[in-house]
């Protein structure tokens, strides 16, 4: 994320010319033509199944180089090796794309050890932060060079680590009897003084890998009972007692540890003063148990090795991360100097050479203490400001959305991470994803995604159906968070793909739309016919109340049946379910006599006077309304089929098909999905008080219309 002072740095440029993009041969899309306004919010609204996710994938894969788009090759073309592959045209300047979809939520958000993958990169590592790191690295460059120039130092550190780890200490400060090194000491003497009965194995026991040979010998010992012959060479009359005695005398794991210890000691020979080195060699070749004096010697030696090792490691890791939590930076730096005189066992010429160079560099750093302290202080302030800004911004959003979760950014090793906490149980939720509901995960992930966009500043941001799963209040809250204010996605070229009309309503039609004007929204309706995807602009005036839609279509339609369909819906949406509604409903259900349903579901004929009065009122909208005349048309299958073919509006085709279904309840066959779609389209979409006119924006999926046409035929 970019801090408030840096927000303008991450905003992309906004040239006037739009992207005119053509996508061909991708999944179910034969060709799609869409325009994207640069630096703006581009909303593409269309029904499910039209190929919106394919558009998102195509734009993302197109940035990954030649061949990446082959993943979208239509199945029908995969058997034809010579078929033209997928193509994206007009997107040559789009080199980076960030996509928010289910994959983003599952792969990048709610990781076990942090809220979002690479949270340090997103929330802390600003250009300003990186500049501060580089400044400190330059100051520490001299001592880093000394460490790097000494090529053998890494090997020395590795050997010192192995020696230290071989011997652990008890609380009393003596060598623990359970440590690997202690167990191996007994093998040292036995390897140096091999028992006379086993001298025949001397060359094996004193080879470069005695433990490996012992392991091999031990496995073969298991076959001694099968024969008197040697299981290794088949010589007869083998001395089985001698063969067994080897593994009884020498335990392979301890031999392996001792062999490794001897190698380490010889590698470190130049770092021990001669007397101490000789004592160490004697202890590792003694047949006797450790004396108290030898135990104390080893414990003391281990302590000196650990002290030197810690100093070497601290010098190698000297950086902002190693100083950020130090209350006194000056004292922390001075404590890195190695006082070799107090490490008498290691005060050799070899150690003095390495330590002398390091201490000389530390003396030079001491002359820059004021500069170092100032640089560390400034960097800590930068980090604190980033942490406070990001935590506050996300937590305010979580609180306003009614979530009891909060985030916290904390240091980790040489980096930082964002973790999730709950008000009722403070502490890191390492399984955050399993605690959050589907909606909570998506809402939270969207805000994290927004921060990543602001950090990475991609050429194109794609939001694939981001808010359709939320209720109205949360939809608006999320849209407001994403596109309102200078710390939002405003100014980025953003493609929002959705099958939900509400984002368009909120952003271009309602009283709140003015809050989104800075995002320069451009809204289009997507339509697909035989794999050809086209778009049509949606203006604020195109979004009407359903009552307005009905009024417009009743006046503009010629066919009285279509007029009746819209008038019935008008009465329904107004809650006017009187005689007028019942007359139209009866007509569209092919009832000979206008009726209404009683409580038990039985049909009760309307009274004559009620019918006459209802027809008078209906004729205010449809002057030539004739119940019996229209009923005769509806009962004529050929006439009904002609009406179906005469309209190009999917919504009207569905309603005509439903009328045909009233005469033949089995018209939809066993297609449960088709029945559900047709029946639901017949009732008011209660969630959408405002919508697009279906005569201008046909949102009925093509396959549904085709299914109705086949069944009518």
Question: In a few lines, what is going on in this structure?
Answer:
By secondary structure, the protein is α/β, with parallel strands linked by helices. It has 4 domains: 4-108 and 449-538, P-loop containing nucleotide triphosphate hydrolases (Rossmann fold); 118-140 and 318-435, no CATH class; 143-288, no CATH class; 542-712, no CATH class.
Describe the structure.
The chain has four domains: 4-108 and 449-538, Rossmann fold; 118-140 and 318-435, no CATH class; 143-288, no CATH class; 542-712, no CATH class. Helix content is 50%, strand content 11%. The chain has a nine-stranded mixed sheet, with helices on both faces. A two-stranded antiparallel ribbon has the order 6-7. Strands 12-15 form a two-stranded antiparallel sheet. α7 (153-166) packs antiparallel against α12 (252-267) and α24 (560-573) packs across α25 (579-588). Residues 1-15 and 682-687 have low confidence and may be disordered.
List the main descriptive attributes of the protein structure presented here:
single chain; 713 residues; alpha/beta; Rossmann fold; 4 domains; 9-stranded mixed beta sheet; two-stranded antiparallel ribbon; elongated; disordered N terminus
